[in-house]
Design a protein that fits this description.
Elements lengths: L1 E5 L5 E5 L7 E2 L1 H5 L6 E5 L9 E7 L9 H4 L13 E6 L8 E2 L3 H15 L6
Antiparallel strand pairs: 1-2, 1-6, 3-7, 4-5, 5-6, 6-7
Amino acid sequence: MKVLAIKSNNQITSMDIYTQKSSEITANDMKRWISGSIEIVYATKISRLAYLYIMFVEKDAKHRPVNRLASLLLNEGEGVVRGDAIIARTDKFATTAKTFALDEDEAKDIVERISKLAKSKLGL
């Protein structure tokens, strides 16, 4: 299972992650990749009925550069993402929501959708 990391230098990388039951990811997993306190942002432009995609970003990252690719995933007027972002999947929007890793095909599909939004061919 994987998560996608969108770096602020416009690079996307796929990172293997060991998951708990049913591909579930814990908050401690995210703390390995995101420094400081974590904020969860809904990736509106790539979510669909079957899956809700979220990005884990550094909260209050005003000192970090704008992440152009991650910012493309937000609706207009929602601001920008600063610093690195980690993309995963969730089952619902609630305090009891679970976070899940992505399978290989799902990760490739997300990168293709980001490529279309960026109007540039991106790869893993």
